[in-house]
Amino acid sequence: MKNIQKYRFGIQILCLILSIVGFFYNFKITMLVIMGLTLLSGVFYCGWICPFGFLQDTFSKLGNILGIKKKKMPASLQRIFVYSRYMIFIIVAFIGLDIIYSIMSYDPRTSFGNMLLGTMPSMGAFSVICLFIIVSLFFDRPFCNYFCYEGGKYGIMGFFRIFTIKRNESKCVNCKKCDNTCPMNIQVSKCTNLSSPQCINCFQCISSCPVKGTLEYGKVNFTKKEKNRYFSMIGVALILMAAFFAYNILNGINPLERKEHSNITNEVLATEPSNSTSQDVESPSSNDEPASNDEIEKTEEAIEISGDAAGIPDGIYTGTGKGFRGPITVEVTVKDQQITSVEVIDHRDDMKWYNRANAVIPDSIVENQSTDIDLVSGATYSSIGIRDGVKDALENAK
Ligand code: SF4
Ligand code: SF4
């Protein structure tokens, strides 16, 4: 464990590079492996992989170099706010309100991840990233501790882990160095088998402990009382999981559904600017004679009659709009100056909200022959992404 922090730093840098090349995004199997590891041995993603976690760590170290003394949340407030990210997770997972999506569009973890993949965030979202970076100079992992619902989700998943940090009470000298060094504000000196869902397995507590063999990582050794508590909590967790599945199924959502990213589309996105459009047909009459006045009048009439696709030759056009988690790419089919179909071929949004938007917006555009349509409440960002993708496709087709 002596050099563990050096290894962790090296792995964090490696994972940052892998995030930039889209490794975790394109190979979703890695996330499944990480989740399996979380169930078995607690949260490693946050302490070792997450780029935004690493960014906060880096600025925390910079604060140390600048001589800034780290502050801790007062214990009385910590007892309350320690639950905040789990509350956020429950709200995000179970309640679909526009206000929540509006707030989540400023989620610095997602914005930073999108930045690494080449999508610039809005000024507001970028300011939130900067805010947390500055706060990290004074507090360890401010976003992870209180706001990150993704970290909260991993924490809950790893709650029943079999491997964890253990404290040997007979060796402990109660110096509290582990408590002071823990970036997640866990009172390690009060645990025997650490079960806090806040733990990110950074092992800083072990590295800081002055008595060798007092803190170790290994298989949980339960006392009888702990065992009873453990099994009761597994029961509660199973009931909650059943409720989660029932809720999704009753809302017509497959809770296991995960969208795979199309490699073909990735190539298109990688080689074209985000708002680019590819056309499967030649642009309108590029080699034809200039249109006569009669034809121009007819076209103007067609615009009035046919809506947004008026004047656009038959073909399939691709366009991109900005969804909640990044670009949404759509294919728009135009026939006889009418939009005959709208199909989303690539997106990054969560299936729960994307499905709601996709069930309504494409049909609504075809029906109205216009992108001037009502958005789906509770799936606003996905709705806007699909709508703007259609606008982009038609705009470029013209
Ligand atoms: S808590 Fe969230 S932001 Fe922090 S490391 Fe984990 S996933 Fe990343
Ligand atoms: S308890 Fe130890 S391993 Fe867990 S977050 Fe705190 S310092 Fe890191």
Mean pLDDT: 83
What is the alpha-carbon Rg in Å?
26 Å
Q: State the strand order across the main sheet.
A: 3-4-5
Q: Which word captures the global form?
A: elongated
What is the domain tally? 2
Contiguous helical run count: 20
Report the major sheet: 3 strands, antiparallel
Tell me which ligands are bound: iron/sulfur cluster
Summing up helix and strand content along with how strands pair, one would put the structural category as: mainly alpha
Report the uncertain regions: 258-291
End-to-end C-alpha gap = 63 Å
How much helix, percentage-wise, in residues?
Answer: 40-55%
Following the backbone from N to C, one meets helices and strands in this order, namely HHHHHHHHHHHHEHHEHHHEEEHHH
> How much strand?
5-15%
Give me the count of strands. 5
